[in-house]
Amino acid sequence: MEDLAQKVVNARRILDGLFFKFSDEITASLTAVLTRENFILIGPPGTAKTMLVASISKLLKAKWFYRLLTKFTEIEEVIGPIDVVELLKGNVKRIYTNSIVEADFALLDEIFNASSAILNTMLTILNERVIYDGGNIIPVKTWTVFGATNRIPDEEELQALYDRFPLRVFTKYAAPEETEDLIKTGLRLRKEYESLAPVMSMDEVKKLNEYIKNYVYENMNSLVKHISRIVASYLDHVVISNRTRVKVPLYVVSYLTVVGIKPSDIDAAVLRAGTLKVLKYLVKDKEDLSEYESFLATHMPGNLSVLYDMVKEIKALIANNAISIAKEKLREAYELFEKSVADPVTYRFFQVEIEEIKTTLELLKSQL
């Protein structure tokens, strides 16, 4: 299984090299694939949501289905048209070829704009991987359903559908100062997309999924002991349904697999770090995302949480013109920062946060 896990890691590395600042989107997508979970990307148009799913499909040699949904999209465009030849014989049958029914992955763009008929059909696909068609129960082969939207639904009738996408990432436009790097990365993606070669097959994905499930079941007590404490504390800030909470251990082990952690290397510290990272993908809206960032700042391992507090203190000292005290605190912060970077678990999982702290410390140093 380590060979299969390494293939997923390779897929992630390839994708990280092709997309600009898309680490969360890539990691969460692959985590969803390993758990056979539904995943939604929320953000404005033109942020490479479709290209990401297309690229994952190529790397995993997966057949994928795409449809931009509107109020005028017919159900036949999603689950397949009626077979006219059979209809003339008095039989009502559909042609499922090239529909969502026969795909490994499905990307439903602007999913919350669909008609009620499609939304009702999607609920059974997302929940049970079946459709009820003329009294027949048709199995849906789709492994992972990806959604894309530029809005979070506030309509009551759409909440059940939104909840069936438990893994979520908010995409955004690159900042103006990032334009040069964005253009270079985007052009490289356009150039290399057609030549992307598979690094693993869907059969291998399914084997890895089975292995992860068995690992979670066999190590349930130990995993739940460490994971549940963090989730329970998080629930004081963000609401997570019972359905989703039960699956968090599967998400965490899948996430750890995606970032290259072997089962033999999973210990309490790794589980804690993995859980903290996965919680970001369980937020409902941007208000929840702010709550997550505050939660993360106070629960990060090692000295990172202390450093966040020290940065706030140094800013306050500078604002109050207490320069000599601020310089001493900054020196202490740099010493603590070096210790944090030296911890392998902290450095591996929290590189983004470490870079943010480093940049802030350098900015504060320039003000003194």
Tell me what you see in this structure.
With 368 residues, the chain is of the alpha/beta class. It folds into three domains: 2-195, Rossmann fold (3-Layer(aba) Sandwich), CATH 3.40.50; 202-297; 300-366. The protein is 58% helix and 9% strand. It contains 17 helices and seven strands. The protein has helices at residues 2-18, 23-35, 49-59, 76-79, 84-88, 116-128, 159-163, 179-192, 202-218, 220-234, 242-258, 268-278, 286-299, 304-319, 323-342, 344-349, 351-366; strands spanning 39-42, 64-68, 105-109, 130-133, 136-139, 144-149, 167-170. The strands form two sheets. Strands 2-3-6-1-7 form a five-stranded parallel beta sheet, with helices on one face. A two-stranded antiparallel sheet has the order 4-5. A hairpin with a 2-residue loop joins strand 4 (130-133) and strand 5 (136-139). The radius of gyration is 23 Å and the shape is elongated. One of its GO terms (molecular function) is ATP hydrolysis activity.
What is the residue-averaged pLDDT? Answer: 91
The portion of residues forming beta strands comes to: 5-15%
How large is the radius of gyration?
23 Å
SSE pattern:
HHEHEHHEHEEEHEHHHHHHHHHH
Specify the CATH homologous superfamily of the largest domain. P-loop containing nucleotide triphosphate hydrolases
| CATH T-level fold name of the largest domain | Rossmann fold
Q: How many domain units?
A: 3
Strand arrangement, largest sheet?
A: 2-3-6-1-7
Shape: elongated
Helix/strand class: alpha/beta
Named CATH architecture of the largest domain: 3-Layer(aba) Sandwich
| Total number of beta strands | 7
Helix content: 55-70%
Tell me, what is the CATH class of the largest domain?
Alpha Beta
Distance between the termini: 53 Å
